[in-house]
Write a structure and sequence with these properties.
Layout lengths: L1 E5 L4 E4 L3 H5 L10 H6 L3 H17 L3 E8 L5 E12 L5 E10 L1 H15 L9 H14 L6 E8 L2 H8 L1 H19 L4 E6 L2 E6 L7 H12 L4 E3 L2 E3 L3 E8 L6 H18 L3 E3 L9 H10 L1
Length: about 290
């Protein structure tokens, strides 16, 4: 939509298309600049209005993205660009510009940004987001404190997918994600690593019992059956836990030890297991020792 602002009269002329763009009938349009500012989103109004007047005063081009209220009360994402016209003395007398609805583009951008750090099925933070948060948590951890990383796999998830279909498998994952969020709350982060793999980060443990309490709470949360295809399914999970810096002084080592604890729990058919160097056959120092003995 083309517009023309008479700076001296402080009036606006609207070109054709504003009704199609924002839904306002001609009878409700106004040539007063105040009409335009009144329909700016309250959070954008001060910034956009100030930048418009600053551009006019300086005699420079103007560009802003903002939200503008449609006739139905919703807000459109607008990209607005204006170019000044000056008189012989160089004073701005008019600004002519165009408004473009970029709502769909903004929504696609936000979705892309969301999916870069979230798993699409569960909507939980993904591996990339978790690693970023885990790294930051390790860096800011104060001396004498610990944090915990819990890795979790669902048991027999492949069987559920094969027998009940992937849509039901996705429903199961979403319900598990919801229950993990409830367990962790504000104390940490529940993440989805893809498929039936989940993780929990407890960034600063209050007491030595926090990990045990969380492990128990997760198992208890999964006790209630999940109904899929009119069949109540009881979900079972296996977890491995590792503490920073006790079990690994780097993010990579911490993750490795949590993963070994998870695999050990599976091998022992136990619901969970804590990291223990005695059963880490993949520990680099252990491999080095074996090499020396040979």
């Amino acid at each position: 939509v083309v517009w023309d602002w008479d700076v001296n009269a402080n009036t606006l002329w609207w070109g054709d298309g504003l009704q199609r763009l924002l839904g306002y009938p001609d009878s409700e349009l106004s040539s007063e600049l105040a009409w335009w500012t009144e329909h700016l989103h309250p959070e954008d109004r001060e910034r956009v209005e100030a930048s418009l007047h600053a551009a006019a005063e300086l005699g420079v081009s103007w560009a802003e993205d903002y939200r503008f209220q449609r006739h139905d009360g919703s807000y459109a994402e607008i990209q607005d660009r204006g170019h000044v016209m000056r008189d012989a003395s160089g004073t701005t007398i008019r600004m002519i510009g165009t408004m473009q609805d970029i709502t769909e583009r903004k929504q696609a951008q936000r979705l892309s940004e969301f999916l870069a750090f979230h798993e699409p099925v569960t909507q939980l933070p993904n591996r990339t987001a978790l690693l970023k948060e885990l790294t930051a948590a390790c860096e800011r951890l104060t001396s004498g404190r610990e944090l915990a990383l819990l890795l979790m796999n669902l048991d027999c998830f492949r069987d559920i997918n094969d027998s009940l279909g992937y849509p039901n498998g996705d429903r199961l994952l979403r319900e598990v994600a919801s229950r993990l969020r409830a367990v962790v709350g504000e104390r940490g982060t529940a993440a989805s690593l893809g498929g039936d793999e989940f993780a929990i980060l407890l960034p600063e443990l209050g007491t030595a019992d926090d990990v045990a309490a969380t492990l128990s709470a997760v198992q208890e949360a999964l006790q209630q059956p999940i109904e899929l295809a009119a069949i109540p399914i009881r979900v079972e999970a296996t977890l491995g836990a590792a503490l920073f810096p006790r079990d690994g002084a780097t993010v990579d080592l911490l993750w490795q030890h949590a993963d070994v604890a998870l695999r050990t729990a599976k091998e022992r058919h136990e619901p969970h297991c804590y990291s223990d160097a005695s059963f880490d056959h993949y520990d680099p120092s252990r491999l080095a020792l074996v090499g020396e003995l040979r």
